[in-house]
Amino acid sequence: MIRVGQGFDVHQLVEGRPCIIGGVTIPYDKGLLGHSDADVLLHAISDAVLGALALGDIGKHFPDTDPAYEGADSVRLLEHVWELAAERGYKLGNVDATIIAQAPKMAPYIGQMVSVIAKALGGEETDVNVKATTSERLGFTGRGEGIAAQAVICLIKK
Ligand SMILES: Nc1ccn([C@@H]2O[C@H](COP(=O)(O)O)[C@@H](O)[C@H]2O)c(=O)n1
Ligand SMILES: C[C@@]1(CO)OP(=O)(O)OP(=O)(O)OC[C@H]1O
């Protein structure tokens, strides 16, 4: 049996925060604002996993009112979400994700992101794809006010 899920997330770009995307700290003069480390890509993937399992979303599992998640490493959140899939007998089919950001340039860091995600999902790097696009200077992403990410995942029952 296969299950599919999709996820979408947005975080504001502000000064004075590290820019952590896909578990990689990217050198940039701004970073993403959130209760956790605000890793927009890992949040979209976490929501895709939860969607595939029909288990709600990350706000339900990790409330932003809970001090336990203040500054949380989203790699740990994704690992926790993946445990829910693994304990139900699923393995990774594949995951495909897109980061929508005018800047910074993601291309140099995509390989590292793929490695982090494959490890967290107990899968192969060949089953993980991360893409980036600008929005051609249009909208909040185009103005550099924030970064969005979306993800689609396929889980396979072992
Ligand atoms: N933040 C980004 C955005 C884009 N890229 C790479 O550039 C290519 C062209 O982007 P367009 O939005 O002009 O289509 C895109 O395919 C990505 O490879 C990037 O690395 N970082
Ligand atoms: C991850 C959580 C929890 O720390 O906080 P944020 O970093 O603000 O991220 P968001 O994408 O708003 O999702 C859910 C939150 O509960």
UniProtKB/TrEMBL annotation:
Q: Which domain of life is it from?
A: Bacteria
Binding of a divalent metal cation occurs at D9, H11, H43
UniProt remark on cofactor binding: Binds 1 divalent metal cation per subunit.
Site description Transition state stabilizer, residues in chain = H35, T134
* PROSITE patterns (UniProt xref): ISPF (PS01350)
Spell out the protein name for this chain: 2-C-methyl-D-erythritol 2,4-cyclodiphosphate synthase
Q: What class of enzyme is it?
A: lyase
- Asked if Lyase is a keyword of the record, the answer is yes
Q: What does this protein do?
A: Involved in the biosynthesis of isopentenyl diphosphate (IPP) and dimethylallyl diphosphate (DMAPP), two major building blocks of isoprenoid compounds. Catalyzes the conversion of 4-diphosphocytidyl-2-C-methyl-D-erythritol 2-phosphate (CDP-ME2P) to 2-C-methyl-D-erythritol 2,4-cyclodiphosphate (ME-CPP) with a corresponding release of cytidine 5-monophosphate (CMP).
Q: Could you give the subunit structure recorded for this chain? A: Homotrimer.
Enzymatic reactions: 4-CDP-2-C-methyl-D-erythritol 2-phosphate = 2-C-methyl-D-erythritol 2,4-cyclic diphosphate + CMP
